[in-house]
Amino acid sequence: MKGWHKIDLHQHTLHEITYDGKEPQSLYTHEKFENILIEEAVELKAVTNHNTLNIVDHIKHALICKKNNVNYLPGVEIDYLFDAKDIHAITILNPQNDIVSYSIKLNEIITNKLGNKFLDKDEFARLHENMEFIFIPHVMKNKGIYPSKDVEIVEEAEDWVINMIRNGIFVPVIFENTQNYNKYSIYGKIEELLLDDYQYPACYVGSDYKFDNDVKRRNIAINRVKHYIFSEPTYRGLEISVRNHQTRMAHESEIISRSNYLESIKIRDNKNFRNNSILELSPSLNVIIGGSGSGKTLLLNEIFRCITGNDLKDVKNNSKRKGESAYFSRIGKGTLLEINSVPDDYKNFKVVEIPNIYTEIMKYVNDHEQLGNVFKISNRSYVNSLINDFISDCNKYSELMSDLEEEKKLGSESLRNIFTSIEFLNTNPIEKSLFKLKPKNMANLDSTKTRLIIENDEKIILKKDEILKYFNDINKTLYFEFKEVVEEIIDDYLFLLEKVKDKIITFEKRKIEEMIVEQIQNLLNVAIRNSSTKLGQKEKIFKEREELLSNNQTTLINCIKNVLKINKDLAGVYLEYPFDQIKNTIETKNANELARFTLSFDKASLKHVLTDDSDFIETKNISTKLKKLPIKFIDFLDDQSIKMFINELKKVTLDINDVIKNDLSLTLELNVNGSWKEATTVNQGTIAKVSMEYYFNDIIKTEQPDIIFIDQPENDVDKEFLTQTLAKFLIDKKMTSQIFITSHDAILTVNADANMIIQADVDEDNKINYMSYPLEYTECNKVGTDNVARILDGGKQNIEKRYQIYGGILKYGN
To answer: What are the φ/ψ torsions at residue 296 (nearest 5 degrees)?
Structure first.
């Protein structure tokens, strides 16, 4: 991806001095050195010979590097003695320092040592006084602090390096770990020593190559060079990369490959702007800085407008006509920017604007339901569903009880009718032979079924010609090769048709016989009905009573069956308020990493719920009826107590649906610095910060944008929020999205580690001028951070003054 540059900061050439004072011979040649550069394909190279810094050699190395478009840094690998053990550490020097004085001082220290050439801590301090350097101790390798599992830790060296990390504000530290790339093993050591008060150091692997005839060693050394920095391949770029190594230093396997970003923009001809300025952009964090009225938001808005066709939401729309830019009076009708993107279809890029919602959130910091909406945890449908299921079970019980009462009532009535009918029949006997004749049901006649069978068979006969033609066509298609087979099939088919015809004849005869029987039965039915109408009054009543007895007997039997079934169903209904399910649902569905809802009551409180408890019982409009209940509290964890409550509600014409509250009382809690606190106990400023932190992360998670736009987010918020929330947000998101932000705050520029500065100024002709440069920019005695400090802090002297008043000593290289 654009912006990553390969580095190698550990290379040996010639003119070295070992710890015992020897000067080993090297097979180095300038040609071999150049070949190494080409094969490694690095853009930043450092030569670090043992215990010596030969100025002439470094000049030659620098020239060879320059020839191959590789930036060069001078360095040295020094032997230090700790606990009687040899520890190696590399110093990479800023080329702007007095390298000659450093070389002379090192030579004096080494030369004046009569025995072994080890340096101690005091000599290290004297050698590096007033120097800008990057410190690279060997860690998990030979002559490192943690040589191997089988060798004891060099505790004195460990203590020395840990203090260097603590004082990392002065000296950037990289851990070199050539034997084992697993940097997390180093991080574990640091955690043990510094506990929570630490920052992980940068970890890196260099080639550590010495020129000899060992081809295998050479190949291993070249293949070891796989680290990159996300900055300019200069000393300043390396230093800033070390200080922000989480996002600026990486092994090649860790680099995120990205597309869909703006690569550069060009300011087109316009009388109000310095024309034809080309602004290089970073795929990561681009911060637009400048004084008031310098055109920061104008540029941000025009970039956004080029992609989306719309103005930023937070930009006041001053246009007089629809479709014009908010800055029409300054820009005019034409398009201000010409955009170059990767790939070249930036209008299809997905962009998101993060508006300043601090003021909006402050409007409802006390409205927890609204805050729940901000955190997207207010959806109560899951909880309501559980409560509705409970109410449904209660309704099922209530309906079963009503059905049981109905069946009992109907069964009792049927039993009374049976006793009455039996008594009447016994006291009024009659000859009952007449009642043995009953009309026969003439539905589903046999003749009808037979007719349908015949009609279906006749349809089969009608297809005879079609089927014969089908087989004759097959015969022709096969050129009569299988004529005998086809003729045999046709003969069999015709034989079967004859059998079908015989069946039709047989069924026609049966249909006639069935129709005769049906006509006779119709005549009998008419005769039976006519005879019943001619019976006397007593016979009619007797017959009616006998039918009533039969019907009531059937009804009673059905009632008994239904009562048994209902009792079985009732036994399967167990009622208990679903507290555990509701609690678990709220904890999973109504919560995220920054906010959560919890129940405002515990499970024990459900054992004694008063009938007038308005937090749990819906008392509105039914309080009078509730007072009539003989029970004054309910145990919602007890099956029998709930059923008794339902039964009592019926007596006062109330339904369980009218009583149980569906909208539970919930408590909003916020995650404040890792601790959960009730929102009512958190101050409004903190609530706003937590809300915005979630809002920022949620909008990115939801939208998954290619580019993020933010206009002066520091407005109305305090520095703590900028540091703890917004700067961390920018650092985290800039590796996966390109970010454009306008700001006049150093925290969002320097602390958030801007990858590209876009500086906006208004010149003496009242023309807006833009220029872009990386934070680490240094050229022609111009330093990018000097401009940043001037615009955002009023100059570095202000930073130094503040730091001294705070109690520190800001002296670079102390």
So the answer is: -65, -55
What are the tens digits of pLDDT across the range 107-132? Answer: 999 999 988 999 988 898 899 988 99
Pairing of strands 261-267, 278-280: antiparallel
Residue bearing tokens 């005549």: 523
Q: Which residues pair with 21 in a beta bridge?
A: none
Q: How far is CA 352 from the centre of its chain?
A: 17
110: which 2 tokens? Answer: 């080494």
Q: Which of 167, 315, 323, 350 is nearest to 811 (CA)?
A: 167
Inter-CA distances, 597 with 278, 660, 672, Å: 51, 21, 15
Structural tokens at position 573:
């209904």
Q: Give 173-210 pLDDT, tens digit per residue.
A: 888 875 444 455 555 555 555 445 556 678 889 999 99
In sequence order, what DSSP letters do the residues of 512-567 get, joined into one string?
HHHHHHHHHHHHHHHHHHHHHHTS-HHHHHHHHHHHHHHHHHHHHHHHHHHHHHHH
Report whether 719 contacts 748 (CB < 8 A). Answer: no
How many other CB atoms are there within 10 angstroms of residue 445's CB atom?
14
Q: For residue 770, list its beta bridge partners.
A: 760
How does strand 707-711 pair with strand 351-353?
parallel
CB of 222 closer than 8 Å to CB of 249: no
Residue 792 · residue 749 · CB < 8 Å: yes
**Tokens for 56?**
């002439």
Note whether 672 and 654 are within 8 A (CB). Answer: no
As a whole number of angstroms, the distance between CA 465 and CA 36 comes to 93
Residue 309 Cα to chain centre, angstroms: 29
Closest CA to 637 of 383, 382, 381, 390: 390
CA torsion through residues 557, 558, 561, 566, sign = negative
pTM, rounded to two decimals = 0.69
